[in-house]
Design brief:
By secondary structure, the chain is of the alpha+beta class. The protein contains 13 helices and 36 strands. Strands 21-24-33-26-27-28-29 form a 7-stranded antiparallel β-sheet. A 7-stranded antiparallel β-sheet has the order 22-23-34-25-30-31-32, with no helix packed on it. Strands 15, 16, 18, 19 and 20 form a 5-stranded antiparallel β-sheet that branches. It starts with a helix and ends with a strand. InterPro entries: B30.2/SPRY, B30.2/SPRY_sf, ConA-like_dom_sf, COS_domain, E3_ligase_FN3/SPRY, FN3_dom, FN3_sf, Ig-like_fold.
């Protein structure tokens, strides 16, 4: 039993040692310098937070052409092992400059430092190519002298060396070859010594004799982290610059206004964050392992998919080769047939010409026929012979080869095909579409329009995703509603919820897959169901001055000669008529919304609603718009106002003129602007592209909105004791265009008297 327990204990110890060894071996990757691929020696922290050995950094700067910028950041005394001249205490003393030399340095601008020329207006900025992030980082004017040493990383490297016994015994750095094993180290001298060398370089009675010996080590670090600018211990941390600073750095102008905290606070905060993150990672090892398995499975799928892609490309290229080979064979066959046909014709022509030679068949036969003396027989035989001789004579006189020897008509123009083959490449997914915000809007439906960037690969179809943003968030990932395989570059989203905010995005798809989503666009839907109606100009006092479009959605007021004549009598009094156009529907319940656009060049236009009976009663005559008793907004004259001051007005109009909206112009202006506290202050706001009118029949309220941003402009009461109609009043020239419902008909553009209909 005891032997079994001992064996189990031994196995557990060995397993622990294996785990520790594996952990140390894995950690070794974090302790290698990216330049020399060896363990860090006096690592420096670059501004990009990566580390590099000090000697490697000097070498890299030297390769970049920076000379004299590799100062020691720690500014520690040079070790006796690296500088032979300091092996004697007497030689270690440096000669101080003379007083006149110091005066000249002070007068010339406090001297120079490595990397800066005397009197330079623009100090040289040193750029260091970081081997870890493959980017150039700015070291400033001082180069490596302005960087901190990573003492923590040095301690980790030293502990790792000791744990795995890397490098064996530490040898004395001052012995003559062969060196003895080191027994002591000196932090001040930054060297390791055997007993004899330590006594030799620390003579009795000198200042070096007071150096305290330490254990031998390969890395000598200062006792604390020193500021590279002022050689003082760092005590604070600048959150703005994300840099450790000393007391002198803290009061410098460079850090004025920065958020500076003590090192203890930064240490505790960063340690807590690191501990929390490490605890989370260690507590989710199963998740890490699951993700590793998923990544390994992805690697396997990648290998299989890559092999399949290679086979598909090879098959396609072989198919192209087969097509080219087939085409080559057919073209060669056509050339061969053409060649044989020409050769046959030329051979026949040669035979025909050979028959014309003396002694040949045709000539000899003709000569024998000429010997015939019997006239009838001669005529009979010579008739056919003469025809042959005539053709031969004509061919001889007008000689021309029966076929051309050139095959220029068989030349191939493969420039386009070569260009296509040269440009043959893998199909890319479509780029992120760009939503056209000028044409995208929400009305009775949502109309979404987009386009692809100029150099984007084509898309076969698109996917639209949309969701409401004003609903409570559900746990889990955000759920989008999706419409697949949308053809074209526009789409309608039917039946959106009123008074909501929708966010929409689009992405394209082709054979290569789905591309990136477009930027999200937010659209406000109308606050109430959209009311569809047309303009009704069948009644009124001045129909001849109103031009209504054929589709009855646009109207323009033409003032004509009466307004010009009235302008001449303006100082003595005049009567200007009000042109009124109503909608062909009346609202008797619920909430309704509609939108229109007013021409910014309109002289005076009033847009609103009113009781149908009151509108017909008030505008049947020709009212005097100059008279102080006339006000189309109040619904009655000023003499009866005292009796109905508490009642809701029968009209509610928004006054627009010369590209401005008038709000709160007086006691009798737009209904609802005045209250018990007195009249509201007058003001004007710019005219938006479209105006929205929202009628709440049950509450007896009318709201005027900016139909683009749905920002409220005005809200006022309204008498809803009967049917309420949309109304538009014109004084002088003006034009109004009703917004066309999105889903009724395709987009088109109608121009009425120079006023363009909205898209």
């Amino acid at each position: 039993m005891a032997e079994g327990e001992d064996m189990q204990t031994f196995t557990s110890i060995m397993d622990a040692l294996v785990r520790i060894s594996t952990s140390m071996k894995n950690m070794e990757k974090e302790l290698l310098c990216p330049v020399c691929q060896e363990m860090y020696k006096q690592p420096l922290v670059l501004p990009c937070t990566h580390n590099v050995c000090q000697a490697c950094a000097r070498e890299v700067l030297g390769q970049q052409g920076y000379i004299g910028h590799g100062g020691d950041p720690s500014s520690e005394p040079t070790s006796p092992a690296s500088t032979p001249s300091t092996r004697s205490p007497r030689l270690s003393r440096r000669t101080l400059p003379k007083p006149d030399r110091l005066d000249r340095l002070l007068k010339s601008g406090f001297g120079t430092y490595p990397g800066r020329k005397r009197g330079a207006l623009h100090p040289q900025v040193i750029m260091f190519p970081c081997p870890a992030c493959q980017g150039d980082v700015e070291l400033g004017e001082r180069g490596l002298a302005g960087l901190f040493r990573n003492l923590t990383l040095e301690r980790v490297v030293e502990r790792y060396r000791q744990s795995v016994s890397v490098g064996g015994a530490i040898l004395c750095q001052l012995c003559k070859p062969p060196p003895l094993e080191a027994t002591k180290g000196c932090t001040e001298c930054r060297a390791t010594f055997c007993n004899e060398c330590f006594k030799l370089f620390h003579p009795w009675g000198t200042q070096k004799a007071q150096h305290e010996p330490t254990l031998p080590t390969l890395s000598f670090r200062p006792k604390g982290l020193m500021c590279p600018d002022h050689k003082e211990e760092v005590t604070h941390y600048c959150k703005t610059c994300q840099r450790l600073v000393c007391q002198l750095c803290r009061v410098r102008r460079t850090h004025s206004g920065h958020k500076i905290t003590p090192v203890l606070s930064a240490y505790q905060a960063l340690k807590d964050k690191l501990t929390k993150s490490l605890t989370y990672i260690l507590g989710n090892q199963d998740t890490v392992q699951t993700q590793i398995c998923e990544l390994e499975e992805t690697v396997r799928h990648t290998e299989v998919s890559g092999q399949q892609a290679k086979e598909e490309v090879s098959q396609l290229v072989r198919g192209l080769g087969a097509v080219l080979e087939e085409k080559r064979a057919s073209l060669l066959q056509a050339i061969e047939e053409c060649q044989q046909e020409r050769l046959a014709r030329l051979s026949a022509q040669i035979q025909e010409h050979r028959s014309l030679l003396d002694g040949s068949g045709l000539v000899g036969y003709a000569q024998e026929v000429l010997k015939e003396t019997d006239q009838p027989c001669f005529v009979q035989a010579a008739k056919q012979l003469h025809n042959r001789i005539a053709r031969a004579t004509e061919a001889l006189q007008m000689f021309r080869p029966a076929a051309s020897s050139s095959f220029r008509h068989c030349q191939l123009d493969v420039g386009r095909e070569m260009k296509l083959l040269t440009e043959l490449n893998f199909l890319r997914v479509p780029e992120a579409p760009v939503i056209d915000t000028q044409r995208t809007f929400a009305y009775d439906q949502i109309f979404l329009c987009w386009r692809l960037p100029p150099h984007s690969p084509p898309a076969w179809h698109y996917t639209i995703e949309f969701r409401r943003t004003d609903v409570p968030a559900q746990p889990g990932p955000t759920r989008w509603q999706r419409r697949e395989e949308v053809r074209g570059t526009s789409a309608l989203l039917e039946n959106p919820d009123t008074g909501s905010v929708y966010v929409l995005r689009v992405r394209g798809c082709n054979k290569a897959g789905y591309g990136e989503y477009s930027e999200d666009v937010h659209l406000h839907t109308p606050p109430a169901p959209v009311l569809h109606f047309f303009l009704d100009g069948r009644w009124g006092t001045s129909r001849e001055r109103l031009a209504i479009s054929k589709d009855q959605r646009a109207v323009r007021s033409v003032p004509g000669l009466p307004l010009l004549l009235a302008a001449e009598r303006l100082l003595t009094g005049c009567h200007l008529s009000v042109d009124v156009v109503l909608g062909d529907v009346a609202v008797t319940q619920g909430r309704s919304y509609w939108a229109c656009a007013v021409d910014p060049a309109s002289y005076l236009v009033k847009v609103g609603v009113g009781l149908e009976s009151k509108l017909q009663e008030s505008f049947q005559g020709a009212p005097d718009v100059i008279s102080p008793r006339y006000d189309p907004d109040s619904g009655h004259d000023s003499g009866a106002e005292d009796a109905t001051v508490e009642a809701s007005p029968p009209f509610a109009f928004l006054t627009i003129g010369m590209g401005k909206i008038l709000l709160g112009s007086g006691a009798n202006s737009n209904a609802g602007l005045t209250g018990r506290d007195g009249p509201a202050a007058s003001c004007t706001v710019p005219l938006p592209p479209r105006l929205g009118i929202c009628l709440d029949y049950e509450r007896g309220r009318v709201s005027f909105l900016d139909a683009v941003s749905f920002r409220g402009l005005l809200e006022c009461p309204l008498d809803c004791s009967g049917p309420v109609c949309p109304a538009f009043c014109f004084i002088g020239g003006g034009a109004v265009q009703l917004q066309e419902p999105v889903g009724t008909k395709p987009e088109r553009k109608v121009t009425i008297g120079g006023f363009a209909k909205l898209d």
